[in-house]
Please model this.
Amino acid sequence: MTELLLLIAGLLGGAVNSLAGGGSFIVFPALLAVGVPPVIANASNTYAALPGYVSGAVGYWSGIWAHKDRLVVYSIVALIFGYVGAELLLVVSDAQFSVIVPWLMLFAVVLFAFGNQINGWMAQRGGGRRGMKALGTMLLLAFLALVCVYGGFFNAGLGILTLAFLATAGMSDIHAMNGLKMWIAAVVAIVAVARFALSGSIDWYHGSIAMVGVTIGAYVAARNAHRFPREAIRAGVIIYGIGMTGYFFWKAYS
Model:
């Protein structure tokens, strides 16, 4: 039953990621439900999500390459601060992380629910900053660094935060933005998973079952995306995310 639950959660999470985003709201709680400790469950969730980020970056490669001048800097920031986020996770105990999780989930759900509005607001404010010199560049890279620290520490909501950064950086081509989002997320996940692996913080067995489900679910959903009402799925993910957030608050503070 444990393996079946994780496989189903992975299938659903991968499909939701392809259709609307928010698959971590399904996979992470499923890992906790089968008894994986909180910190290891979070690290294993990042491991399970990694193939989706890599395949997404490959799929968007033409859009990414159109902005190749940004790749080196963005990749260096993602490597360094994704590692910092992963390192932060490893110094937090399971008890401490269990108290933090509800707030991270709440933050991620709010990001997911209002991501379009956030990105639109960022785009409006970012469009006039394209001419900013050294100070503006440093502020933008500091924003990206914070995004990558968050992604290395807690995977859910990383995509929305990355899109918000890219909008602030003055980008408006959604295909290029999605490609760079996948690229940055893949780099963060790769360095985080490498750090988690070195510290023995990944449950390879349960995480791999979830990863297989995520990979299959993402592929099948992508091939059949036209058959699904995206907004209805998005609304369902938000409702589910709110429910899980409430459950984590009750479990942590009751």
Notes: The first helix runs from residue 2 to 19. The chain has one domain: 2-253.
